[in-house]
Amino acid sequence: MFYEVGIYNAKKKLKKILSSQDLSRRYWKKIKEQNMGLNPGQSKIKSLSAEMRRKLDAQIPEFLPH
Q1: From CA 36, how far away is CA 15, in angstroms rounded?
Q2: DSSP per-residue string spanning 38-58
Q3: Residue 58 phi/psi, 5° resolution?
Q4: What are the CA-CA distances from residue 49 to residues 14, 32, 53, 54, 61 (Å)?
Q5: Which residues contact 58 (CB under 8 A, 6 or more apart)?
């Protein structure tokens, strides 16, 4: 549950009021965006070029397959 929030400017005048419904929508939108980042769809997965793979392997040799 979210409570209504007032946003004030530097002169302490009420600038905007966010309703509990707006806050709830904003919260769940952020959660959905974060979940998409954890399990990206096929369109979000990018493959590495051979040159980039060689550079990364040179920086982190312990991750190379034996």
Answers
A1: 33
A2: HS--GGG--PPPHHHHHHHHH
A3: -70, -35
A4: 53, 30, 6, 9, 18
A5: none
Handedness of CA 63, 41, 45, 29 (dihedral sign): negative
Residue with tokens 């399990």: 39
**What pTM does this model have?**
0.47
pLDDT tens per residue across span 34-63: 766 555 555 555 677 888 878 877 877 666
pLDDT of 47: 73
Per-residue confidence (pLDDT) for residue 51, from 0 to 100 = 84
- Please, what sign has the CA dihedral across residues 29, 30, 35, 41? positive
* Among the listed residues 28, 23, 29, 30, the one whose alpha carbon sits nearest the alpha carbon of residue 4: 23
